[in-house]
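Ticket 4471: requesting a sanity check on a complex prediction with adenosine monophosphate. Repro inputs:
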Amino acid sequence: MTPDVRDRVERQARAARATGGTTRGTMGPPSGGAGGAADATGEPAAGRVPESTWARALELISGADEVALACHVSPDGDALGSMLATGFALRSLGKRVVASFGDRHFAVPRLLRFLPGQEMLTPPGDFPAAPELMITFDSASADRLGLLRANVHAAREVIVVDHHPSSSGFGTLGLVDPRASATAMLAEQLIYRLGGTLDRDIATCLYAGLVTDTGSFRHSSTTPAAHQMAARLVATGLRTDEIARELWDRSPFGYLKVLAAAFDRVVLDGGLVWTYVTRVDRAAYGLPYAELEGIIDIVRRTDEAEVAAVLKEDDEGAWQVSTRSKGAVDVGALCAELGGGGHRSAAGFTSHDSVEETMARFRELLGKAR
Ligand code: AMP
Ligand code: MN
Ligand code: MN
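Returned structure tokens:
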């Protein structure tokens, strides 16, 4: 790192400690914290990341020549977008950046291949075994990092950037705000505080995170701060129509056939609607696992159901279960009991049992929750 960059980061860290105030860059949001304009929304400051924690994060980053970034396995737009956006900002500070996620089959899901910055990505096998400084994104626990879990344990410092209420407190420093609509909100704050500004690449990555986790500003997680952040991002000249098309409005033909198979066996069982997709369904059309992400959004529209679930068999034969609630049931707590996690209305878990056994356990817990 060049001396002037180190000076800038150190000045900001000192200013944060001295004033307890915000130390954002010139393009920062109107008020600090991932919760954004707390004054305008009346949202309490509780849950915000304390200024002293931000200052410590800047200190750790300032002292590192190389920063190793990781996000959760089977990355979604929030995980990958937050990581790559932060990678751009760190690179412009002169840091060496390596970024990865711990999937056995290391490949960026097709729907996220439009994201810039993929040259920063390295397969998990080439990730530093014991990084000096590691930053994780959108992962509530070290387990969610898959193959990179061991690297977390060996790293000297680990900054956790996340918004899951179930965040387990792993790592040596947590930039965690469960009220943030997306990890991308915390990443945006970090970028400003590092003295970075929004360019089109950073904005594209952050926007992908924001729209993914708010379901295009439809989910209950959508706050005024989410819309304010979107305005800042869109002002860089983003083609939001093209991003939406990449994320949700295209798929290979085989997707329609796999959907047809999944919907043919959909079940409405009391207030629960659910279905499953096997490896065999996908193999017939060469459809990658990551293409299944949107199926839950069609299943969950069922008027008669409060809770929706889709079991997706991954390439290893494990069932990745996506669950959604309309609000009355906390599926995040329910999935946590099954070894997974997530949010109140969107959560998931992994099962190595059969479809029938998996659903029997889920139904039993659901019965207790209602
Ligand atoms: P998905 O259904 O994959 O879109 O995931 C919805 C939410 O549940 C996300 O916030 C994930 O972080 C969380 N989630 C999904 N699968 C798991 C899992 N196996 N373990 C922990 N959290 C999960
Ligand atoms: Mn995620
Ligand atoms: Mn997220």
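Notes from triage: The radius of gyration is 20 Å. Leaving this open until the requester confirms.
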